[in-house]
Structures are given as C-alpha cells and as structure tokens.
Write a structure and sequence with these properties.
hydrolase; Sortase, Chain: A; elongated; two-stranded antiparallel ribbon; 356 residues; alpha+beta; eight-stranded mixed barrel; Sortase; single chain; 12 strands
Length: 356
C-alpha cells in the first residue's frame, strides 16, 4: 500500500483514560446596546472635559481693552467707545520672516520687563485716548543712555514716542536676529527688547547714521484689526499701532530717537501696513522706500521727504488682515532740527494694502 494511502491511526486508543478534553472558552460578546451606551458615556466625558478646560481658560485670561472700529472722520473716531475682550492663546499668532520680529510664541506674554527700571518708566505713563492724547514731546530719554550702556554694552540709543509707553533703550546685536528672544541681560525673554538692524550705523551722532535706521520691537497684545490707543498692559512696540488712528497721529507728529552722542527729534511722515515683500528695512534707504511708505500710509502727512534725509523705520507685527505672518505695521519719520512746527495730516482714502 502506498504511504499516501496508509490507514489513519485511531488516536483515541492512545488518549489517557480519565482525562477529558478541555474545550476552548467561548468569547464573551458585548451586546450592541451596551456598546452604544459606553460610546455615549465616553463622548459625554470628552465634551465635559473640553467645557471645563475652556471655562478655566476664560477665568485665567487677562482682559485687554480694544477700541471699536473707527469711522473715516476724526469726530466720530474720537467718540469711539472702548470695549473689553479677552485674547486666548490661539488668538496670538507667531511671526516668521526675514526681520524676525516675533518667533514661536503660544500666547500673550505674562512676564515683566527684564529690568526693574524699565518697569518704573511705565508706571508714570497713563492710558491715553483718541480725544485726550497729549501733544507735548516731553523728555527724550537721552540722559538714560549712559546708564544703560553699563547694564548692556550693546545699548546704542534711546527711543521715546510721546503719547505711548514706548520709552526704551535700543540695543544692537552682532546680527539682526540676536535679540529676537533675549532681554537686556541677554538671557531668554519672550518680551525681548527694542533692537536695531545689525546693518545700521549707530555709533555716532546724526551725521554717522545710516540713511535708514531700522528698529524692531515685539507686539504681543495690540495686533488686531482695530488696535486700541494705549493700555498699561502693553509693552515694547504694542502701542505703535495706535498711529493707525488719525486723531492720535495728528496729536503726535514727532518722536525721539537719540544716540549716546546726540539728542535727535524725528518728524513722522508715514504710518502703514505692509507685507514683507516691500523691502522697507534696507538701511541704504532710497527714494523708492520713501515713496512706497507714503503710498501705503494710513494718513497723508504734509511732510516733504527726499533721499537726502535721514529716516528712521519702526517695525512690528500685526494681524489686521488675517492670520498671515507676512504682514507688518510700520512708522517712518525723518530727522529734523525743529520738532515744534505743526504738521497737516489727513486721511488717505486709498492706501496700498498688503499683498497676502
């Protein structure tokens, strides 16, 4: 007989007697109704958890004051009523670009200034409104420069903008992004400092300045579609966006930026929103930058400016036109010897908008 046709062995005769075959356990089947109930319960737990999280977030948020949208006329703008809103962490968007104004932050910074004297500077600055903003230039901050050089040898000057709490030393690092997330002590700080582009010349008086002195600062709290005019919670360049409002611009046509060698006043000629494709941060300056700034300006300043003038550029982040990180708010001014003359400023009916 072929091996393939061998008879099957009766294995039962080899099975030990008295031992029963152990059967496999049957799998317990969960009824469909029980599965449905468990799914519903799980969903309820998740929803409740999210609700508690949002409630806690609202309770711990710091409210900030913003202004309602102003109209095109100065009279109605002055009558704007302040509204209180809360900014959540997801409302604050990071900036990434060649000028690296703000890098990778998740929420409104709750830290304090990196030096106690900076805190003292801001205690005396009141919140201002469109109708009560002061006109006086006040002090320039020039006398503070030498002290701050002892705190940080990178200190090059002092920036003060009347009507705001922008009243800071200006530092300059070995490369432009050096101070993006550093304080005056050069340690990590989300608030950062006010810092100058590394390509700018700032070691002497006005005659040695670059054609375009470019200065950056963070804006953590006042970046929205309708920026408010001043709040004690604002730091660094957060109040720069107040220049969007015509009445504020009319009341504050000048600013101070001084180096350790010379006290200098500057006359504002443009306040505008732009995308980063407009290379306004070139320290070489040029008439094309001046013309481009005026064409984009929220207001028309009756201030003649030419490529022979020394200009200053103050740049910060904004989200006025949505979540894009390619938009900026910029104020430009030219060096003047007499900061007391009046300036005619009117609304620009058709400014060039950012190409986002």
């Amino acid at each position: 007989m072929s091996p393939n046709h061998a008879p099957r062995r009766n294995t039962s005769e080899f099975r030990p007697r008295g031992r029963r075959r152990v059967s496999r356990k049957r799998r317990t089947r969960i009824p469909p109704k029980a599965i449905f109930r468990m799914s519903v319960l799980f969903a309820v737990v998740i929803v409740c958890g999210l609700g508690v999280t949002k409630l806690l977030a609202k309770l711990t948020q710091q409210p900030v004051v913003v202004q309602a949208a102003p109209s095109t006329t100065e009279s109605s703008e002055a009558a704007v009523v302040a509204q209180t809103v809360s900014l959540s962490a997801t409302d604050v968007m990071p900036c990434y670009s060649e000028d690296a104004l703000v890098i990778n932050y998740l929420g409104v910074s709750k830290g304090v200034s990196t030096h106690p004297l900076l805190e003292e500077l801001h205690k005396t600055v009141p919140t201002v409104s469109a109708s009560t903003a002061p006109v006086s230039m006040g002090g320039s901050g020039f006398s503070n420069i030498n002290y701050w050089k002892t705190v940080n040898s990178d200190t090059k000057g002092w920036l003060k903008i009347p009507g705001t709490n922008i009243n800071y030393p200006v530092v300059q690092g070995p490369y432009t992004n050096y101070y993006t997330e550093k304080g005056m002590d050069k340690n990590y700080s989300k608030q950062g400092v006010i810092w100058a582009d590394s390509s700018c010349s700032m070691n002497g008086g006005s005659s040695t300045l670059s054609p375009n002195t470019v200065i950056y600062g963070h804006n953590w709290t006042n970046y929205g579609e309708v920026p408010r005019i001043g709040s004690p919670s604002d730091t660094h360049f957060a109040q720069l966006t107040a220049f969007q409002h015509l009445s504020f611009a009319k009341s504050h046509p000048y600013l101070w930026f001084s180096t350790g060698s010379e006290e200098m006043a500057w006359q504002i000629f443009a306040a505008f929103y732009t995308d980063i494709d407009f290379n306004y941060i070139s320290s070489a300056g040029g008439q094309w930058i001046i013309d481009g700034a005026k064409a984009r300006s929220e207001h028309i300043y009756d201030v003649p400016v030419s490529s022979g003038d020394k200009i200053i550029t103050l740049s910060t982040c904004t989200r006025r036109f949505g979540p894009s990180n390619r938009q900026r708010f910029v104020v430009m001014a030219k060096l003047v010897s007499n900061p007391s003359s009046s300036v005619a400023i009117t609304a620009n009916p058709n400014p060039i908008r950012p190409n986002l």
